[in-house]
Automatic annotation (TrEMBL), chain A:
Listed PROSITE patterns: ABC_TM1 (PS50928)
NCBIfam families associated with the record: 3a0107s02c (TIGR00974)
Species whose genome carries this gene: Terribacillus halophilus
Molecular function GO labels: phosphate transmembrane transporter activity
InterPro entries for the chain: MetI-like, MetI-like_sf, Phosphate_PstA
Pfam families reported for this sequence: BPD_transp_1 (PF00528)
Membrane topology: Multi-pass membrane protein
The protein's name: Phosphate transport system permease protein PstA
Keywords: Cell membrane, Membrane, Transmembrane, Transmembrane helix, Transport
Any Gene Ontology CC annotation: plasma membrane
Family: Belongs to the binding-protein-dependent transport system permease family. CysTW subfamily.
Transmembrane among keywords: yes
SUPFAM superfamilies to which the protein is assigned, alphabetical: MetI-like
TrEMBL record, chain B:
Domain ABC transmembrane type-1: 89-299
GO-annotated molecular function: phosphate transmembrane transporter activity
Protein name: Phosphate transport system permease protein
Residues passing through the membrane, by range: 31-51, 85-113, 125-153, 159-183, 212-233, 281-302
Family classification: Belongs to the binding-protein-dependent transport system permease family. CysTW subfamily.
Parts forming coiled coils: none
InterPro entries: MetI-like, MetI-like_sf, Phosphate_PstC, Phosphate_Transport_Permease
Principal subcellular localization: membrane
Length: 295, 308
């Protein structure tokens, strides 16, 4: 009798906790979207930000965020996928593999401000580049590689053993098996992981504050020469991203419409992360269905 | 008949491509090995460069490391500059432990809900909710903390709103999904025989959870908490926006405070590279690095103790 009542109480507590989590998410999204969406107009998205007047937009910040994301993924995906292949297929159990695993865990758990400090030291001061897009992208690469390695390793390990053994039994080399059997099978998993990692990179700020900087030069969107000073494609220019912009308008507080700009930018950021999430799920299931010819 | 004509050509193809494939194998193998080496190099480079730079305030500027860590007087500018970072270490540890204290029961509770009480609802609905919470960028958490939580604390509780307390709440919300995700994996990986055995002995669900499942999953649950703490400890911007950033030790939980990450974030940009103050900030970066390594070793130790 007594234990039955405690069981009921405990169940009630667990339901309450689950309800708290859902309420938390609903409140956060409601707050961000209800305050932010009215700010997000075409004008807000396409006008440059202002450093001290009201009415600035987020055009450059949005472009910078996307551009840094693309460059980071161009560097990270090949490195991470190759690293994951090594860990899944070539690494022999032993001290060296153990050490590599420790390294991956360490990189994965580095606080992003520490990654930012490392970037500041190497890509800003020692190389003498100053605040640059490429410096920011390389810093982001450091904390994104472990994610990609883990995702790839898991995806490759989840390939059924028979597939791999059948290929090897036909006398095909290990590398060729990886290329033609394992990677295609693991592709949806890797893609989903890469998109989710993109969401994380898109919202990252602390690692970018002192590597990509807090400012953006005046950009001329008609100039597509990547070596020109005012070209948006120049990777050796400073670039404030959207997440950094939210932080800097709040901390510096120089513009009168801090709340409006930060609300709008937060909404754009959260919607972007949401889209990455949905895209990852959707693409993953679509490709999986195509490959496995399932229902 | 048709097969006979195919076989020699396939054989020929194999013979023709044999050498090619072997080279392929060597190239492929070296490519992935190089990527693995890059990860080792990156880890070692981060450690060595930050250690070398972080030690400069002791080796070049002759600051006493003991005084640096234990003094409560942080006054980096002027004639009688003194560099004591104890208040910031205290702030970092306080927000980390307090937020873990709140997030641990909630996170593990949610994990148990998802794995034991309502597995279907958990997987279909609660799991995506938690994944979305993980995805919200930390500046957004900081911003909401700044515009919602800080005024709320200011109006209803002692202090000016910016406080250790606000930092703890923001961090709790941030690490809650992390703790929940890992704890859920831990609970789900428990073998079903444990549950069935206990229930067959007549135990209620709560007795099963408390006496059988939680003890069995304990090392993994602790891992979840430690990883949550690691995230809380390293978070910079969200905390910086709500904690107030003062250099004194907080007298109560509603006082303003500062952490290692917030002081580094605020000051590394506008101090001269190579100056004493700048070097002491790099030393804080080194401390952050060392403590994040400590967290990893705790996690490794715990995963060695996993029973199941």
């Amino acid at each position: 009798m007594n234990s039955r009542i405690t069981d009921r109480i405990a169940t009630g507590v667990f339901y309450t906790i689950a309800a708290i989590m859902v309420a938390l998410l609903l409140y956060l999204f409601y707050f961000i979207l209800s305050n932010g969406l009215p700010q997000v107009t075409w004008d807000f998205l396409t006008s440059p930000s202002s450093s001290y007047q009201a009415g600035g937009g987020i055009r450059d910040q949005l472009f910078n965020s996307l551009y840094i994301l693309v460059i980071t993924m161009i560097i990270t995906v090949p490195l991470g996928v190759c690293g994951g292949i090594y860990m899944a297929e070539y690494a022999k159990p032993g001290k060296i593999t153990n050490f590599i695993r420790t390294c991956i865990e360490m990189l994965a758990s580095l606080p992003s401000i520490v990654v930012g400090l490392f970037g500041l030291l190497i890509f800003v001061n020692i190389t003498g580049w100053g605040y640059t897009i490429i410096g920011g992208a390389l810093a982001l690469t450091i904390f994104n590689i472990p994610v990609m390695v883990r995702v790839t390793e898991d995806a490759i390990r989840s390939v059924p053993k028979e597939q791999k053994e059948a290929s090897l039994a036909l006398g095909i080399t290990r590398w060729h098996t990886i290329k033609t059997v394992l990677l295609p099978y693991a592709f949806p998993g890797i893609l989903t992981g890469a998109i989710l990692a993109s969401g994380r990179v898109f919202g990252e700020a602390a690692a970018l504050l002192y590597t990509a900087g807090l400012s953006t030069p005046t950009l001329d969107y008609g100039n597509w020469n990547p070596f020109a000073e005012n070209s948006p494609l120049n990777i050796f220019r400073p670039a404030e991203t959207l997440a950094v912009h939210i932080w800097s308008v709040n901390t510096q507080g120089l513009i009168p419409d801090v709340r409006e700009v930060a609300n709008g930018a937060s909404a754009v950021l959260v919607i972007a992360v949401l889209l990455f999430n949905i895209l990852a799920r959707w693409l993953g299931s679509v490709i999986h269905k195509k490959l496995t010819a399932g229902k | 008949m048709a097969k006979a004509s195919v076989t020699p050509s396939a054989e020929e193809r194999l013979i023709l491509t044999k050498k090619n494939r072997r080279w392929d194998e060597v190239r492929g193998r070296s490519l992935v090995t190089i990527c693995a080496i890059i990860m080792i190099v990156a880890t070692i480079a981060v450690t060595i460069f930050l250690a070398q730079k972080g030690l400069q305030s002791f080796t070049v500027n002759n600051i006493n490391p003991i005084a640096y860590l234990t003094s409560t007087n942080w006054n980096p500018v002027g004639e009688n500059a003194s560099f004591g970072i104890f208040p910031f270490i205290f702030g970092s540890l306080a927000v980390t432990f307090l937020s873990a204290l709140i997030a641990a029961p909630l996170g593990i509770g949610a994990a148990i809900f998802m794995s034991e009480i309502a597995p279907k609802f958990g997987k279909k609905f609660l799991q995506p909710v938690i994944e979305l919470l993980v995805g919200i960028p930390s500046v957004v958490y900081g911003f909401i903390g700044l515009v919602v939580l800080v005024p709320l604390v200011r109006d209803n509780l002692p202090g000016i709103g910016f406080s250790l307390f606000a930092g703890v709440i923001v961090l709790t919300v941030m690490i809650l999904p992390t703790v929940t995700t890992i704890a859920t994996d831990a609970m789900r990986s428990l073998p079903n025989s444990l549950r069935q055995g206990s229930l067959a002995l007549g135990a209620t669900r709560w007795q099963t959870i408390r006496k059988v499942l939680i003890p069995a999953a304990l090392p993994s649950l602790l891992t979840a908490i430690v990883l949550g703490m690691a995230r809380a400890f390293g978070e910079a911007l969200a905390v910086q926006m709500v904690i107030g950033n003062t250099r004194d030790l907080p007298g109560s939980i509603f006082d303003t405070s500062a952490t290692l990450t917030t002081i580094v974030t605020l000051n590394i940009g506008h101090t001269t590279y190579g100056s004493i103050e700048n070097n002491t900030l790099w030393s804080m970066g080194l401390i952050l690095l060392i403590i994040s390594f400590v967290f990893i070793f705790i996690v490794r130790y715990l995963s060695g103790r996993r029973k199941i």
